[in-house]
Write a structure and sequence with these properties.
This protein is an all-alpha fold. The protein is 71% helix and 3% strand. The radius of gyration is 34 Å and the shape is globular.
């Protein structure tokens, strides 16, 4: 049970940080740091078991009927990546505490960071392919939020969209590839897939699956031709870059390739797909890095190049190349995170990252300069540093595998090594020379604790470079063994292997890089060059923008020629397809056993038939009146709702009748408030008294399609509810009646059905309801009524009426609404008690959280209607957003509680408590879930109400006299009033 806390601690810290005030700094940093360190300790203590060959597995039932469980799996590779995610994450969090400005919403930053950390841990620890893809896409979402953290900046928004688009498309490809892999292996369990390598490689779908998985990995790790998003992601805060683009997000693609190496590697397709992408990436990335002027841009392209190096190692396919790939992945994460943080210090203390402006910084910040120079040397592959060891292993593998036939691999490796020396020298050039005096800010050393993370990482670079076997030998062996198993090769992490060709390649790259840098700087004015020679036309970002622009233009053309903004034609097509497609698929239509139309009509009670005729008549009349007589149409729709409610009551369903009645009440009021801000619409005089024949035909067509759709849904519903299911001896109705009390703990079948048997559906419904309410609120915040609808209603435009000059609050305090206001204020606690009553009885008698929420929301609505927005919000702190948030959290926590105890999500349990005076009480966990439903219903209703009510506050910007004059002027002639 230790893997689940490791995964959940970051998500818990994210939630806590998100709930903190926006001006907090130390508290969110402390929460994030404590959670990360706790998860790190829990992961570290697993090393002894992992080193002994144990693979930790934890399973939690999720959807057992579909064979989907939450499976957490930690072997040596997962352990190493988890330590990287948590260890470097802890250092970045400490660094961010001093980097972030007091003007930044720091809690939001830490909430995003911890959510991303949890998503990365989910990728690393997943033991199921589908689960891995879910967390994979979650990293794309959270990285989008982090890259676009400074949302007021255009470059941040553009970089976030670009990264999200590319990685999400890759994620969809990965999902398709994982589905194929699972099909070929016969299971989606990672262990089963890794053991089915021969079967997968021999399968006819191997190449499509490999291509799709490679697309997912290459887009995530910014490999050619998808490399362009990473430099634009540098618009993120530097702590984000030092974390996402060194040890986590860009390493996710590499991790996936290493993880699936036993199942996919060993074929020519694997070598050519990954090898070609990797070689192009390592050369282009290193070359473009030389000509960058932004320090973060240089590091971004160098990251692309090093990731290409790792991809090439994996494409080679030998066991030793896998060891080298894992080793360089670890080394790169260490020195690149320290370099990004050093750039952040330079930017933070000087106000710029432009290398054309920066020089002589070692005079003003000698400690930072020393740390950056050492980390750059590790990146360049200088001996006695960690980067030298893994890069020498890279040279060795390209020589052994390439040989004399594929000599180009060794040449590409040597060129990449030479280029890395050049851009490393370019990077550290800002610390030498005379100190620049035209900088935006006076350079100086950062706070002591801001430099500590860099010091620890640079110390690790030196320790691994000097004592590799002692410092990292066991860790590397554990990770490599988890991938290679019996194919584990012998290797030596010694510093000195004698004079050999790989050493000569390293020395040549170092010497040649220094000479090339001096020539470029002195002869070709490297610092003043604005573009890469020859290859500057390769603009991946521009190609991406052109593709997106073409898609947008194509979509606009398609909408313009085939679509419409009118809702009625859209509904017509949807309804017609809903009727036609099932009929065509199921033709000839089967009958419904046991259903006789003549017999059903004979049993129909005349009063019930009259009730339905009234409801249908109201519905048809509402559609007829909706265009020019909105208020009448709303009243008629309410009549249809009342007829529906009476139908439920007639059929002995008081729960549904009560719910329908409250829904009609609330929606009628909210729609009425919305109609207040729509401009008036009057029927043209030339159309009065006659309707064109084309209109009659169109309306008749719509009526027939609507009736067909309604009858089809009614028949389908009747068939589903009445016919026995396959393998069952009773229909659904009898099943729920028999099992409601025994398994759901309640006598009210409807409520038990909603919160227990179909609790997952209800969870989805309240989530959708919350999303709709938040969308309506966001839209109405930007909505501005038409000028002709801002004026006060015609009925209030008379100067004789004394209430015209009063605000709603004044009318309720001492005006004509005083009696109603006093009565309704006393009614508020009464309706609150009534709401609690219906909520408490809902599991056994008609009621429940939904009805109780609507009753309480109605009590609040009438307060707004009588006293006005100002008075209500000055006396009641409603905070509907929090009602929604807490409601969803309570409902979700109920399901998670059952899940943590080993039961399927949202499994209900009933506790039997004996209390003094009250006796024995049955307390089901569904009661808590119903509480979440209650809070969401209240929150969503009030949120929409607040959004509508605030329109009246905005309309006060127009003087009252002007409003009355506009209202009187807007009164149409008598003949135009319908």
């Amino acid at each position: 049970m230790l893997l689940l806390p490791v995964l959940l601690l970051p998500f818990g810290a994210s939630f806590i940080a998100a709930c903190m005030p926006s001006d907090s700094r130390d508290r969110p940093a402390a929460v994030a740091g404590i959670a990360t360190l706790a998860a790190l300790v829990l992961a570290i203590v697993q090393f002894s078991g992992i080193a002994g060959g144990t693979v930790l597995n934890e399973r939690y039932a999720w959807l057992p009927g579909l064979g989907l469980d939450i499976h957490l799996r930690m072997d040596g590779l997962a352990w190493v990546f988890a330590i990287m995610v948590l260890g470097i994450g802890a250092l970045v969090l400490l660094y961010a505490r001093y980097y972030m400005s007091r003007r930044d919403p720091v809690p939001r930053f830490y909430a995003y960071m911890m959510a991303f950390m949890g998503a990365m841990l989910g990728v690393v620890l997943s033991g199921n392919l589908i689960q891995l893809v879910v967390f994979w896409e979650l990293t794309s979402v959270t990285s989008f939020l982090l890259i676009g953290y400074w949302q007021e900046r255009i470059d941040a928004r553009r970089g976030a969209r670009m990264a999200f688009t590319v990685t999400t498309i890759g994620g969809l490809c990965l999902l398709a590839g994982m589905l194929l892999l699972g099909h070929m292996a016969g299971s989606y369990e990672l262990q089963e897939v890794l053991g089915a390598g021969n079967r997968i490689r021999a399968h006819a779908w191997y190449v499509p699956a490999l291509t799709l998985v490679a697309l997912g990995a290459l887009t995530k790790s910014a490999q050619f031709p998808f490399h362009f998003w990473l430099p634009h992601a540098m618009a993120a805060p530097t702590p984000v870059s030092s974390y996402l683009h060194s040890a986590t997000m860009v390493k996710a693609g590499v991790f996936l390739l290493i993880r699936l190496w036993p199942a996919l590697a060993g074929t020519e397709e694997w070598t050519w797909i990954l090898g070609s992408a990797g070689v192009c990436t390592l050369l282009l990335g290193s070359l473009f890095a030389i000509f960058q002027h932004d320090m973060k841009g240089l590091l971004a392209y160098s990251t692309i190049s090093h990731l290409g190096l790792i991809t090439v190692l994996l494409s080679i396919g030998t066991p030793l190349s896998v060891v080298a790939a894992i080793f360089h992945t670890m080394n790169h994460a260490v020195f690149k995170a320290s370099l990004f943080m050093a750039v952040g210090i330079v930017d933070h203390e000087t106000g710029t990252r432009d290398m054309r402006m920066l020089r002589g910084l070692k005079r003003a910040m000698p400690h930072t300069a020393a740390l950056a120079i050492v980390a750059s040397a590790a990146m360049a592959g200088v001996p006695l540093l960690n980067g030298f060891l893994s890069k020498e292993m890279f040279f060795t593998e390209t020589m052994v595998v390439g040989g004399s036939e594929n000599w180009w691999m060794s040449v590409a490796a040597a060129l990449m090594g030479l280029f890395s020396v050049i851009y490393s020298l370019r990077f550290i050039s800002v610390f030498f020379g005379p100190l620049a005096h035209d900088l935006p800010e006076e350079p100086h050393e950062p706070p002591r604790w801001m430099r500590v993370p860099i010091e620890l990482l640079v110390l690790l670079c030196i320790a691994v470079g000097v004592m590799p076997e002692r410092v990292v030998g066991d860790v590397l062996a554990v990770a490599a063994l988890a991938v290679l198993g019996r194919a584990m090769p012998e290797y030596n992490l010694a510093i000195w292997h004698g004079l050999n060709l790989p050493l000569m390649m390293s020395v040549s790259a170092l010497g040649g890089g220094v000479v090339a840098y001096l020539i470029l700087r002195n002869r070709f004015e490297l610092a003043q060059r604005d573009r890469v020679p020859v290859l500057h036309r390769l603009k991946g970002a521009q190609l991406y923008e052109n593709i997106m622009l073409g898609l947008a233009q194509g979509a606009s053309w398609l909408v313009r020629h085939t679509g419409t903004r009118r809702l009625q034609p859209q509904l017509l097509v949807l309804t017609a397809m809903m009727v036609a497609v099932p009929v065509l698929l199921a033709w000839p239509l089967p009958g419904i056993p046991g259903f006789q139309l003549a017999g059903a009509l004979g049993e129909l009670h005349p009063l019930f038939a009259l009730l339905w005729l009234i409801g249908a008549g109201c519905a048809v009349a509402a559609a007829w009146k909706a265009k020019y007589h909105r208020l009448a149409a709303l009243a008629l729709v309410g009549g249809t709702g009342l007829a529906t409610s009476a139908t439920f009551l007639w059929l002995s369903a008081p729960d549904l009748a009560l719910t329908q009645l409250m829904v009609e009440t609330v929606t009628t009021v909210l729609i009425l408030l919305g109609l207040r801000w729509l401009p008036p619409r009057f029927q043209p005089a030339h159309l009065k008294g006659r309707v064109p024949a084309a209109t009659w035909l169109r309306r008749s067509r719509d009526l027939l399609i609507a009736v067909a759709g309604g009858l089809g849904l009614a028949a389908a519903s009747y068939a589903v509810l009445s016919l026995p299911q396959s393998g069952a001896t009773t229909d659904l109705r009898d099943f729920f009646v028999r099992h409601a009390l025994a398994e759901g703990g309640g006598a009210n079948v409807v409520n038990v059905l909603l919160v227990d048997f179909r609790g997952f559906d209800t969870m989805g419904e309240i989530t959708v309801l919350s999303a709709v309410a938040l969308t309506v609120y966001a839209l109405l915040r930007r909505f501005r009524p038409a000028p002709e609808s801002i004026a006060i209603p015609v009925q209030q435009a008379s100067d004789v009426d004394p209430a015209v000059g009063q605000k709603p609050g004044e009318q309720a305090r001492d005006g004509y609404l005083m009696v109603q206001a006093v009565y309704l204020r006393f009614l508020l606690p009464v309706m609150g008690v009534l709401s609690v009553y219906f909520f408490m009885r809902g599991h056994n008698l008609p009621g429940g959280g939904f009805v109780a929420g609507l009753i309480f929301a109605t009590a609040l609505i009438v307060q707004y209607m009588v006293a006005g927005t100002d008075w209500v919000e000055s006396h009641l702190r409603l905070r509907p957003h929090r009602w929604i948030g807490w409601g969803l959290m309570i409902a979700c926590s109920t399901g998670l509680g059952a899940w943590l105890l080993g039961y399927p999500f949202l499994t209900s349990h009933t506790a039997h408590l004996t209390l003094p005076l009250l006796g024995e009480l049955h307390v089901p966990t569904a009661f808590v879930f119903d509480l979440g439903v209650f809070m969401v219903v209240v929150g969503t209703t009030m949120l929409i109400l607040v959004a509508l009510a605030h329109q009246s506050l905005r309309s006060r910007r127009i003087p009252a006299s002007a409003s009355r004059g506009a209202a009187l002027a807007s009164i149409p002639p008598a003949k135009e009033i319908g």
